[in-house]
Amino acid sequence: MESKYFFLKVLPVLFGFWIMGFVDVIGISVSYTKEQFGWSEIRAGLLPFMVFFWFLVLSVPVASLMNRFGRKNAVLLSMLFTFVGMVLPYFLFNEWTCYYAFALLGIGNAILQVSLNPLLQNVVSGKMLTSSLTAGQLVKALSAFVGPLLAGYCSYHLGGWEMMFLIYATITLLSTVWLYFVPISREEIIDGGSSIGTTLGLLKDCRILVLFLGIICVVGLDVGMNTVIPKLLIERIGMGIEEAGYGTSAYFAARTLGAFLGVFILAKVSEKLYFTSNMLIALLALVGLILVDSYIGILIFVCIIAFCAAGIFSVIYSLAMKTMPHKSNEISGLMITGVSGGAIAPLLMGVATDACGTQIGSLLVLGVCIAYLLFCSFTVKTLRNVNE
To answer: Which Pfam family would be a valid example here (predicted)?
Structure first.
């Protein structure tokens, strides 16, 4: 009976990770909107910016306010923003409502990413917490995998890819109602939390700064790959958008596999070796992606990059927490702020692609991200020794 009650509480929280995965549909959405509205690369790059900009603005304030209003309420608020954003295109879909929809999705997702993991601590603890967090990330990855397939299905069978927003709105509403009616004990209210200035002041430490920039680059790489894959397949292979979306799903499948196996690999090898070797392989794969022009070749190199980059966010996040364990709350908020790298990379990719005239411009920007991550991996040992 106790086990049944446990799952009754944990399942709606885990389902929140499915809502969190909606943000990854931004990749295929850029390709659809670019064709539908005739946008330039730069204007299309504004769409991811509308999503990930809010991580820069909201992460630290939400972490502070969550102490006051509670984790569950923060998650419910995030789902409200997500629902409004996803239902809006059903009533009116044009260039502006598209921007508004993704901005609201970004606001909701920023709040959700800050509050959902801590909420899981309200229902599980000890060894179960680690496995539950892993389960949550797998749920998120599966949601991201399904997104491009759903967009293609809606385009073929429901009259337009934008119909997926109504499906997302329905799922979000069900998730909200489910979580609302499940009793979850409120965490202890913490007074006098850290200020925004104190948290941002951690960047004065060169160790934290290097790792923070690493978070920006790894998220920029992930979002950048997400957006460039369908455009690359359209440009080089001449595929339709619906078929090109399968390339994005292959990317997410490889990323899910990489994250899953990374748990076992990191139990056997050091973080530095894992970090460095993965980034070396990813850099070589990116060179291959620049040169190859076959469908199979593109998918192979895309999947290699996805597999190698899958566990890097967790590695950097863990290293940052170990650098200043007494400042774990502040560092957590700061690292989530780095997710705003997903807003920066697509804009730079748009500028580079318009300048080059091909998607090679985008790939070069991603090359800079991987190169910095490789630098960061070589610096890890020095950073840790300073701490020790």
So the answer is: MFS_1
- Cα gap 62→109, rounded to integer Å: 12
Burial bucket for residue 48 (CB in 10 Å: 0-12, 13-18, 19+)? buried
Q: Write the CATH number of the domain with boundaries 7-181.
A: 1.20.1250.20
Query: Shortest CA distance to 54 belongs to which of 140, 112, 141, 119?
Result: 112
Per residue in 257-288, pLDDT (tens digit) is 988 888 778 778 888 888 999 999 999 999 99
173-191 pLDDT, tens digit per residue, is 999 999 999 888 776 655 5
CATH code given to domain 194-387: 1.20.1250.20
Cα–Cα distance between 211 and 338 in angstroms, integer? 10
DSSP structure class, residue 268 = T
Q: How far apart are CA 123 and CA 235, in angstroms?
A: 48
Contact 89, 36 (CB under 8 A): no
Q: Give the integer Cα–Cα distance in Å for 351 and 174.
A: 40
pTM here?
Answer: 0.78
334, 319 Cβ separation under 8 angstroms: no
CATH 1.20.1250.20 domain span(s) along the chain: 7-181, 194-387
Q: Give me the amino acid identity at 298.
A: I
Q: How far apart are CA 56 and CA 106, in angstroms?
A: 11
